Amino acid sequence: MDTVTTLILAFISVVLVNNLVLTKFLGICPYLGVSGRIDMAFGMGMAVTFVVTLSGTLTWLIDNLVLIPLNLEVTRYVCFILVIAGAVQLVEMYLRKFFPSLYESFGIFLPLITTNCAILGLCLFLNLWEIKNFATAVVLSFGAGIGFTLAICIMAGIRENLKLADVPKPLKGAPITLITAGIMTLAFMGFAGMIK
Amino acid sequence: MILADIIELLSNSWQAGVIMLGLSMVFAIVLLVASIKFKVQPDPKVEQIHKVLPNIDCGACGYAGCASYAKAVAANPDLIGLCAPGGSAAAAKIAAALNLQISDSGPPLRPIVHCRAHTEDKTSFAQFQGIESCTTANAFANAQACKFGCLGYGDCVAACKFDALHIFDGLATVDYAKCTGCGACVKACPRNIIKMVPFAHENMITVACSSKEHGKATRSMCQVGCIACGLCAKQSDVFSVSDNLAFVDYKKYQPNEKTEAAYNKCPTCVIVYRGKTAPPPRETKKKTEAAKT
């Protein structure tokens, strides 16, 4: 029971309290780039969730079973990027085969998941937070993806409504998006300290 | 010494190398299996069309590149004639790939700069010292006296992907040997003085001026502007005058004595030939006088 509680707390903490986008400011590029429509944002969130779960789990395994015992932490970045790039390629092929329209609409942002810093950030955080438990690592990786999906979907919802709003001319487009992102970050700061 | 260093380096780092190699092997195999399993069969029609396109991704058709245009054409044959650099040859090949027949789309379009004022012909009211681009210079009214003429900062040159436009003495000049007719310069020109013209002949006659000012005003601002005297319209019906400016009906144009007479009679020498082997424009009277004295 105790482990389950820990896992649930870990999940909530990475989704809300330590949300990678809104409190660590990672992965801002797709967060602003693909949040124009809610269905696309959700698709992007799902793709990132898949990649981050896969690569977070794999990199935790590689890190703890191979790199740390052999004292090869210096190669961490290269190995992690390798894993992430491989996972993204996999997602890209899968989407191209089964969701061609989604694949078209993502355009350049799909291969760019490789350089999405939220994913590499999560892989490195797993080490930084000294996660010693495989189950926690998996839950945290999955939670990071869900947190990203949550943030990007909220953003897309707001932006869809903003299209109908009477925004002052100088603020139209990117400025109002950035202001929205800032206010959302402020709101999410309210979660800070909820879980110790 | 060096050898010892290298051996030390290798003996310290071989593990890292082996691990990287092993990891890449694993991912290579996984991706290979995935690429076979998730293989997408591309539409053979699209591939065929893509092959006959020029593959320069100029964007003249309005699509992001040749690949997306090929896809759009395969889905909607109405879009066949949009490839400007490929011209009618590409259109015919696309039609063949789609099992369609097209009628001849006419002569290829090439841009003509409707201004012939070099720096020495122009008058300026003030000196423009802002950002060196036509768009900004155009936003400041009348630094250059003529508000229709070429500004010469080269927005069109920057837009041209084929090195076919250059500024000579403050005038944008098309190199017709290199031009593919993609129309990027037409969109780039803030004064809309570059227009696409059907080049039925190697050299086309044109009124190289866009000034709609009254004749006297044009004359006061530019040595080589059209003053709408109407002499050309009297010589040949290819020419017509409206809005204080002479126009050429490019579709009607056939080189003959009448158009040649119009070319020779034009008092400001604003009627010129443009094309691959176009003769240089006639010298204006003022310039020859100045040269004499």
Number of strands of chain A: 0
Tally of helical runs of chain B:
11
Give the low-confidence spans of chain A: none
Strand content of chain B: 5-15%
Q: Give the fraction of residues assigned to helices of chain A.
A: over 70%
Number of helices of chain A: 8
Q: SSE order of chain A, as H and E?
A: HHHHHHHH
Domains of chain A, number: 1
Helix content of chain B: 25-40%
Summarize model confidence as the mean pLDDT of chain B: 84
Q: Which structural category fits the helices and strands of chain A?
A: mainly alpha
Question: What's the shape of chain B?
Answer: elongated
CATH topology of the largest domain in chain B: Alpha-Beta Plaits
Mean pLDDT, all residues of chain A: 87
Q: What's the shape of chain A? A: globular
Care to give the gist of this entry?
Chain A is built from 8 helices and no strands. Chain A has 196 residues and is mostly helical. Chain B has 293 residues and is α+β, with helices and mostly antiparallel strands.
Structural notes for this entry:
- The complex is a heterodimer of chains A (196) and B (293).
- Chain A contains eight helices and no strands.
- With 196 residues, chain A is mainly α.
- Chain A has one domain.
- In chain A, helix 4 packs across helix 6.
- The longest helix of chain A has 30 residues.
- By secondary structure, chain B is an alpha+beta fold.
- Chain B folds into two domains: 54 residues, 3-methyladenine DNA Glycosylase II, Chain A, domain 3 (Orthogonal Bundle), CATH 1.10.15; 176 residues, Alpha-Beta Plaits.
- Chain B is built from eleven helices and eight strands.
- In chain B, the strands form four sheets. Chain B has a two-stranded antiparallel sheet.
- In chain B, strand 2 and strand 3 form a beta hairpin.
- In chain B, helix 2 crosses helix 3 and helix 2 packs antiparallel against helix 4.
- The longest helix of chain B is centred in the first third of the chain and has 36 residues.
- Chain B is elongated.
- The N and C termini of chain B lie far apart (81 Å).
- The mean pLDDT of chain B is 84.
- The chains are: A mainly alpha (196), B alpha+beta (293).
